[in-house]
Amino acid sequence: MSDDFEKNLxxxxxxxxxxxREFPRRLRGRIRDGIAPRTRVRMVPQLALAGALVLxxxxxxxxxxxxxxxxxxxxxxxxxxxxxxPTPQPFTCTDRSGGTSGASSQLSTIRTALHDGYDRIVFxxxxxxxxxxxxxxxxxxxxxxxxxxxxxxxxxVGIKLVFRNTDVASGVSADAKPALTSxxxxxxxxxxxxxxxxxxxxxxxxxxxxxxxxxxxxxVVDVATTASASTTAAPTPLPTQPAATDLGQFSCLxxxxxxxxxxxxxxxxxxxxxxxxGYDRIVFxxAPQAGATAHTPAYTVSRQASAKFVKDPSGLxxxxxxxxxxxxxxxGASGATSYSGSRDQIYNLPVVQEVxxxxxxxxxxxxxxxxxxxxxxxxxxxSNPIRVVIDVQTP
Amino acid sequence: MLMDPxxxxxxxxxxxxxxxxxxxxxxxxxxxxxRTARLILRDEALAEDAVQETFLKAWQRIGSxxxxxxxxxxxxxxxxxxxxxxxxxxxxxxxxxxxxxxxxGRREVSSEARLDLAHALDKLxxxxxxxxxxxxYQDLSVEETARVLKVPVxxxxxxxxxxxxxxxxxTGAEEAFA
Lengths: 395, 178
What we know:
The complex is a heterodimer of chains A (about 400) and B (about 180). Chain A has about 400 residues and is α+β, with helices and mostly antiparallel strands. Helices cover about 15% and strands about 40% of the residues of chain A. Chain B has about 180 residues and is mostly helical. In chain B, α7 (about 125-135) crosses α9 and α8 crosses α9. At the A-B interface, α1, α2 and β18 of A face α1, α2, α3, α6 and α7 of B.
């Protein structure tokens, strides 16, 4: 009976806590302001004095040699001018990723312009260009983050841009319909937990060119409007389930994918087996909640040089079998009520030695895998049912 | 306590004064700390103040963080801030309540006065709510909760037991199972 009361209390606390849906932007700003270096304020008199001395020196030199004025203005112009555009890249028909991993930034402006052969969208940031993903899609319907509501933009196809660790300055329009050839509409489709996303509705499927510029930091997305601007190849088909014969290459990098949209997906199974193709396979299988739409939850697979992990949220250490590891984190997923299998599985496979749940808290589900050696991986996203597959290369 | 190597690199940058790295830590732990602080303080604005102060102190005191996951360390600071914020803001209220109790003695809760859990939680002390939030919301063990709140394990057991009994009384759960 006391268990019932404690369960009710636990449920109540979670519900009450989740009323705070996100970390407020204003609070982040207050903290950022609070750690601002104060030395700048103390430097003001010194800087003013130094500036005055420079001006006096320039005035004296100009009096003695008037050409110095041209030299100084040229140098100043070079200093304050934005960086020159890099050599134009070709238009390609593939998804893109880039930016600075871990950089925190704020989107300050979105501009559009019509150019000969392409439409240009410029996303300008107050700091570095944050980590971003650009994905093409075969419709102009997007899913809002975090409500999961669909939104259909003008146009017949689309581009989705996701900026991580980014918020948006006030005054940036959440929806624009520029009078361009291909770009029909640009709409903010998500601004949640510092993940900012935009949908772009396009008149037709076109290749794109992405440029990262500095001074100020800008991400430029050029959408081709004529065949001459595009590569000769037709736009590639949009991503589908990988064919069994084309599972992709193994890479020794961290992987991520899926989308944190809609209601939390429910973990239903975790399977691990060796495959004759030269890899151990870990499969996480998910089902949507009743009435919700199935989607692959956002996930990251991080490689690490030990089999020691930290539990979420307790911070307690866990050491698995093996000498290397993978940490797999799903955002917007839980197995608390849906997963009845073992949460600590031991294997004697060529590489995978153990798979254990590390956390299931606030719809963030994390598992670890202990590996006998550091191995490269590949990830696959499969549907019917939704599965995230991690293949670990074996010797 | 051990640390995720990726997080370790972020902390190393923070130690060197990298504000972006610090903001990554804010992003990673901020929401959970804010939610926990709100459970204790019962007020959004006060919780934000406590979390702001937590991170500013953490920024200044990074030297005292050992080679460990910063989560429990930040939680400790946040709990101290939350409890002291509550005490500061409710000093007068607490005094009034204390004198009120001395005069009235222990008051039983009638069936009509049964509260829902949210209101019952309002009636606990900040220390009791901190214990309840860490144990039942963050799922820390009694020992971990005691460590974060810097009290002996037996004291924590007693505090949780008292808090639960009070919540049962206030919500009428005690009566129902009598």
